[in-house]
């Protein structure tokens, strides 16, 4: 696999915390520039826009797009039409319609389009999918709960239209569930709890049914205090599977099959940082593979489930949120 | 084209008003039975369920599904797996996820799956599409306004989660716009006006941008009094196109190119009834063609745009609605 040169577009928190180290740690990738109207990264050639970066770096092979979602369609289109490979941070767009248009565009362009869902790279996910493929699903429970004040301090965009609220982490749960469960599943009922001063839910309870009528319950909550819970439990005809730690630990009938990385220390923040770091390493390994193979991979199922929840859910007004 | 035998599933208002006469008027179709847990139609063999109908009528070629949206996935699946052709009244499902699953299922089944969008059959739509294909779009304005008390008396499901409110007619506008405009378009901003006692909007203002950055404004309103307005206006580099009367009248630079059918009388209700009747005749002609050709046609773009509006729109609370 020959080395890919990559430019980072949008140099915010996720680009610095995850994309930068994941690219630098991958021997098949070379980070050559960054584009952002304001922010720069020390030691990295900087451009004010994607357009400027493409003009200045004609040999660039790929871009990773980490900008706010409403900017991504135009940027991804520009890069694809310039013949570049494109990785899109999750979610792949602000709307399903623009993601569908990008998928069509990518079919006519030489580059790879990759919609990155980091939780799909969690350590236990591939083994869970394989194990579940052979089983009959009886019941699924998804719990995805974290303290928004700890995990998203000052991220007021979460509460604006399009910010998705608790579905910003919840879409990670849906990206795991849609990948590991052997049958498609559909929303039957949903309650979205929306703070009186916000546009998006702080909590959501979702009831799905899979194509074989197995019930799937999901409980997303931003008001969790203490440790995070990122867990999927599946009861089958041949035992019980649990994915915990965002998919990084896999247990079958309470026996640990895959264990989450523990990081440099034993404290919770260090463990979680190590887990997410490995997920992004997995994303870039996958991106390099897809680019080498000349294939695109755009899984729209997680964003489609979120749109279904907004389309079909009942809204209840709850206490105003003071960040 | 050999004659197709059809069963109607869900014998509510739309089945009686539109499907029944459209099937009966088409010489290539034979209506052989109806299925509904409660309602029957005089002179038509009746079954309590789709299952019972399939068991009693093994020679049935096709079913048309007009039940409430949350029932359609399971019914369409049953019929497709029984080898039948399936027409789905609009919208094709309660959620995008179940429509996506039906599309995949139809690829593995012998029958045709057809998502029916009656406004796409309006008399001026095909000519508008052809004319616009050659033009550069500068600006689009969509107005879709009707009095909910006149057009949807007592339809309280419109205001419940999934009922879509003003998007129930608005999706007809979107089914026309996504078909006739030459470039895909994406929501950029939306305001949904939701009555204080309802879950779904009574009005919506939508601002889209097409892939060439032409602005598209849509204004949906259920609080219209007087005549309905169902109109799409397109300014192009080569003149102005107007589709009025729900797409049934086409004007180019104010010259009438296609005229709406006038019905038996000259009054407005008679004209509108004649128009919608012709649209359903067009749907069944298309269904018969697709079944003969062994092809499916499921246009998800209109429902995807509605889901995007719920996902991305700003909600404003307005005066309670008293039906």
TrEMBL record, chains A, B:
PANTHER family membership: BCDNA.GH03377, DEHYDROGENASE
Species per Swiss-Prot/TrEMBL record: Halomonas halophila
Transmembrane segments: none
UniProt-listed SUPFAM superfamilies: NAD(P)-binding Rossmann-fold domains (SSF51735)
Residue span, Gfo/Idh/MocA-like oxidoreductase N-terminal domain: 5-109
Source organism, top-level taxon: Bacteria
InterPro entries in the cross-refs: Gfo/Idh/MocA-like_OxRdtase_N, Gfo/Idh/MocA_oxidrdct_glycsds, NAD(P)-bd_dom_sf
One Pfam assignment: GFO_IDH_MocA
Record-given protein name: Dehydrogenase
